[in-house]
Amino acid sequence: MLKIEHLTKTYRGASRPAVDDLSLEVASGEIFAFIGHNGAGKTTTIKAVVGALAYDGGEITIDGHDLAQEPLACKSILAYIPDNPDLYDHLTGWQYLRFVADIYRVDAETRRRRIEQYAKELEIYDRLAELIGGYSHGMKQKLAFVAAFLHEPKLLVLDEPFVGLDPKAAFTVKQMMHELCGRGGAIFFSTHVLDVAEKLCDRVAIIKEGRLLCAGGMHEILHDRSLEDVFLELVDE
Amino acid sequence: MKTLFQLMKPDLMSIYGINRFLHRQKGAGRAALRPVLVGVAVLYCVGIYLFGIAELLQQMGALDVLPMLALALSLVFPLITTTFRVENVLFKFRNQDALLAMPIPTRTLVASRILVLTSFDAVTAYLVLLPAVAVYAVLAQPGAVPVLCFALCALLSPLLSVSISAVLGCLLLRVTSRFMHSKAINIIAGFAFFGLVMALSFSLNFTIAQGDLSGIAGMIDGLAGIFPFSLLYKATMGGALETLCFALLCTGCFALSAWLISTFYDRLAVLLTPRARRARGGDRPQAVRTPRKALICHELKRYFAIPIYVLNTGFGAILMLLFSFFLAVISPQKLESMMDTPMIAQYMQTFVPAILSLFVVMSSTTACAISLEGKSFCAMRAMPVRTAAYLWSKIAVNLLVTAPAALISAAILVFALRLPPIKAVAALVTPLACALFSAATGLYFNLKMPKLDWQTETAVVKQSMSVLATMLTGFVVAGLIFGLSMWTGALLVLDAALVALSLLVQRHNIRRGFGSMLAKLDS
Question: What residue ranges do the domains of chain B occupy?
Fold first, then answer.
């Protein structure tokens, strides 16, 4: 579903690349965790994948479409939730969802059904008439999830998705993620919560200073150790 | 005092990009040179303008009132502009919660925010006052003491006007926070305030146009008798005691306003948090719109959600309508007798396209439209939206704000001034061509000089280089139109050229996309 080949990105004036020759692949039906310490290049990679950041070299392919050649085709099948969902404070929840649904061309009946389903599951349905500016961080995160699931994306790209979510919402989101993968979708997300990554994900990649340290199936990498042990061992080397 | 400085430092470093400049590795010299050159150019232009006024005053034997007039202008103007910045700077700054949680007295926090507010206006005030000090020193040659007294008063004067504006702004916010559509009320109050000042200014200009110099002298004498202008007048004449009194008045007002606002700051801050606003019936039905229409509606919603944005860009349109209504009510003959200027109707007929174009170029919404996306720009980029559709939606909003006002005004003036057909066509077409040009160049400059990491919307709407560059370009075009106004045929050719140029600029904007903008932001 997602294929990153030799991705390289150096910010202007920086002494080293933020992402250096990174290659990895996320297959349909997989939940893929992308972990690394602060400043390792996770967010840069994620922003490049969603088409929000121009990259210097390499190729990104989403469901067979080259991101550089067919950005709209790629973007229309993915959904992205940034680490800090800076949504439009001047809109109400309803207005924001309508805007997103219009952009992704979701028909009236489908959007009504999905908003009702996901917003009720995440317990924000009754708050959709309020201005987003009045939402807490967790509520904005929930709204971003509802918006992301509106067009049933094939690839869901998340940057620290569980920050600010209450335990029940986090559980619901995990269920929604599993359902998406069950329908053939794929999820690529970064997190610092290694326990969640270990329990939730099928595969994992660890990045340090822009370079990939290891990538593979969770069981192949762990070998009876915890993800925390493996991560600390690799990044301390 | 130390805490006050520590609180202000991060804001000042970010507002003027000092920190970014200090930590920039490549092209630091060029980056620093640009604002310096712009500043010098503005100082020069204001200096020339003030020199003209000073010579007029000298002819009237009233050059000694120049410092007081300059100071009065710098005191009154912020009352209009700063009052509407209070909400963003005092109550909606980015790290507000973190600072409120720190062991800092509310009074100190409020004082630091008022000083940040002052720093916004001080730049504008000093751009007028510095040349005024220079012109006064050169023309009047009053000696060192009066010039020093004037300079000291000039240095401190923004503190006085901003302190008063801060209290007025808080009172306005307290009143409007009671209402559901507080932003709309803020916008209406803003336009009313502007309208009042424009009416006063028009009445003064009218007196000048009538050549009633004795009237002006009387007005100046009257002003010099009103506190604090009387104090200013004596201070700038070299009165050391009056200068000291004015300095105490400025600092005293600042301390008083900080204390006063701190007494209700917490309560007002709670009232201003986005309230649980139930949507009206229109919100819920999820009727389908095309992405293009959704983008335009989204842009319009954002436009009307930011009062300072509407005030800054809608003012040209409002002025244009007021101007045309005024000329429709007052017949050309009556205007001629009022202004005591024969042929004024004929001049008006000639310059209608240029006057309307001048109002239109004051209303570019696109010059900061991309910057206003702020941090949500990244999420927007991840959506399947063509760059062209995204950029055209911003142009559409600009045209929706300016074109109806331009068309209505032009139509009224066509009938009121009985324009011949060819001039009527020019009056209708020229402002529209200008609107398109100003929208396209606004986007061009905003893509070239983006500002996504803003702390307050005011910083984007009022202090962006892109806004300044767009306005200046617009004024150059308006000047060209004035120059060609005598030849309607040439004017129509210019209109066609403007439309063609706008389309070329927009094509360039779309082709270039966000690549160079993002690369610029990377650094």
Answer: 2-10+33-279, 291-522
Q: What are phi and psi of B418, to 5 degrees?
A: 50, 60
Whole-number Å distance between alpha carbons of B241 and B239: 6
How many angstroms separate the CA atoms of B328 and A98, rounded?
A: 43
The HSE-up count of residue B91 (CA atoms within 13 Å, CB side) is 25
User: Which of A11, A43, A88, A127 is best to mutate for the B interface (most B CBs within 10 A)?
Assistant: A88
Distance CA B518, CA B515 (A): 5
The nearest CA of chain A is from the CA of B281 a distance in Å of 10
Q: HEC states along A92-110?
A: EHHHHHHHHHHHCCCCHHH
**What is the mean pLDDT of the segment spanning B466-472?**
90
User: Looking at residue B443, what is its pLDDT?
Assistant: 93
What's the whole-model pTM score? 0.71
User: In B, what residues contact A, Cβ < 8 A?
Assistant: 24-26, 273-279, 283-284, 286-291, 293-295, 297-298, 301-302, 305-306, 374-376, 378-379, 381-386, 514-515, 518-519, 522-523
Tokens 């979708």 belong to residue: A185
Task: Determine the pLDDT at residue B286.
Answer: 65
Half-sphere exposure of A189 (CA within 13 A, CB side): 29
Residue matched to tokens 């992402």: A19
- Contact in structure between A139 and A22 (CB atoms under 8 Å): no
C-alpha–C-alpha distance, residues A157 and A63, integer Å: 14
Q: Choose the weakest-confidence range: A62-76, A90-104, B193-207.
A: B193-207
Instruction: Give CA–CA dist B451/B472, Å, rounded.
Output: 19
Residue A155, pLDDT > 90, answer yes
